[in-house]
Amino acid sequence: xxxxxxxxxxxxxxxxxxxxxxxxxxxxxxxxxxxxxxxxxxxxxxxxxxxxxxxxxxxxxxxxxxxxxxxxxxxxxxxxxxxxxxxxxxxxxxxxxxxxxxxxxxxxxxxxxxxxxxxxxxxxxxxxxxxxxxxxxxxxxxxxxxxxxxxxxxxxxxxxxxxxxxxxxxxxxxxxxxxxxxxxxxxxxxxxxxxxxxxxxxxxxxxxxxxxxxxxxxxxxxxxxxxxxxxxxxxxxxxxxxxxxxxxxxxxxxxxxxxxxxxxxxxxxxxxxxxxxxxxxxxxxxxxxxxxxxxxxxxxxxxxxxxxxxxxxxxxxxxxxxxxxxxxxxxxxxxxxxxxxxxxxxxxxxxxxxxxxxxxxxxxxxxxxxxxxxxxxxxxxxxxxxxxxxxxxxxxxxxxxxxxxxxxxxxxxxxxxxxxxxxxxxxxxxxxxxxxxxxxxxxxxxxxxxxxxxxxxxxxxxxxxxxxxxxxxxxxxxxxxxxxxxxxxxxxxxxxxxxxxxxxxxxxxxxxxxxxxxxxxxxxxxxxxxxxxxxxxxxxxxxxxxxxxxxxxxxxxxxxxxxxxxxxxxxxxxxxxxxxxxxxxxxxxxxxxxxxxxxxxxxxxxxxxxxxxxxxxxxxxxxxxxxxxxxxxxxxxxxxxxxxxxxxxxxxxxxxxxxxxxxxxxxxxxxxxxxxxxxxxxxxxxxxxxxxxxxxxxxxxxxxxxxxx
Length: 709
Fold this sequence. Notes:
Immunoglobulin-like; 2% helix; mainly beta; rod-shaped; 3 helices; 709 residues; 4 domains; 7-stranded mixed sheet
């Protein structure tokens, strides 16, 4: 199998996934001198895992240990104050009956060296037989930030299967994403070194003491070249139990003063060669250490990958045996965005346009300064429900330079169309510092612009009108929205448009219904009839001439101007009396004016019995307007003259007038003058000299009368 020493027990080394979830793992550091020793902080570097065995170093009590971070199965517990991340990796297997299993899928092979570039110098393979001395049971790590001085520290620990002989271990803190998948065969690692990667190398004895711990830095000032491991240690330390105050790196193991004669108990399962699977670690089978990154000026980088390995010596070119690899994500970035609103109605014509913006809260852990960018994108106006602006869209505003976490606002976008819009904020991260990128394209980044509901009021013209006359209607449209703009961003150019959309269009349709409110009126003209619309205004009047008298109702409908202005109707139930019109029948009137044609009669008689009137007698009838004119007997006031009537040959004769041409129509009195001239000398003539008169009194009907029938 590669470079691993063999043992007859066929046990395999299980990988140490000492994934240090260092929330501060993207640690920034200045050149600030350390205020305390690395083991003077809140965490116990005392050679066991129990928080109950508190220490008092540097004048402060250390209350926390690995049991403060992990539970009985290695599960993460809630982080105590100051701790930003933790990770536990079980690194051994058991058989179905609970006994130890020797299989291991992660070992170095084929000359892998710490001094070599990762992708070209590191290889992995699986092993079925790993020496117990280099076999790791569990590995864990934690990140801590001193709340007083802001120093960021890494704590790390490993459990070995046996304490035979002295031992050497190392830990890589890598900024790149590094992995190796052997798939049952030898395979190369993926990923690469970046400037500032750290290698921690330590040696310790089987008696329970750490002899040295050194930290080395990978230098790669030119990203186009692979760089190299600087052989000069950037930090050096010894056993935490013996070092003086002010140390920046130290490590220790479980020695005779720990537990029972050096044997400590773990809350979680572990295994050792003598006791098997259980909760015991014998002397020097447990190793832990700490490093103050800030104090040594090693911050400012994000360690995204952690490896722990066993090795042949402390030499930088030592043979590498077993390894454990895990994702630290020490530097994390999170982008959380909030749109300026979630729902807003499109404004009415004349009001200011909608301006939408986004706010992004950028949170970066593990590093305080970096070089990154932030971009805002908008998608719309027709993003499907339940989706976000995951790709595409249009950038709003210029790219912003971000050097520290905080909350940042986008430029404003002018929205002119109804629809569903979504923002996306993209934080680039800083690949040189190991800060990962992040974005927020969730549905919480979306907002909706709703259409406007217009108002339509109408007023019919004068009512009633006579049959044959037109009826009219007028409509007033208000509360419309302008049409969407064009030439800008978005799928149809309506975002930040270069050309305004103008007033709302569409049509208003006027319909005259009969009294049943369902049948269109018939007659002269167009019914229904439509007029074009251009925004808020009064439209009409329109007219129509019904072909029958009756009661009618105007109904008006506006088509709307999609998508910004909805349609609307008015008086569809015919209940607006302002829209009622009446066409009445042509009215008539009646008035009366009486007149009378005056007539008269006269009886001419001989007073001698048996005597007949002579032939040739003449009777004349003359009608006068007044008594005086009648008595004068002249032409003045003469109204009517009956032609002379000839009488005779009878003792008595009655004659009369036949006036049909001269009428009296006013209240008055008329007078008759009647004369008789005999036809001989033997008889006398006679006259009725205005002795008779007729008084006319008329009572007429001046109208208009009453309806009939």
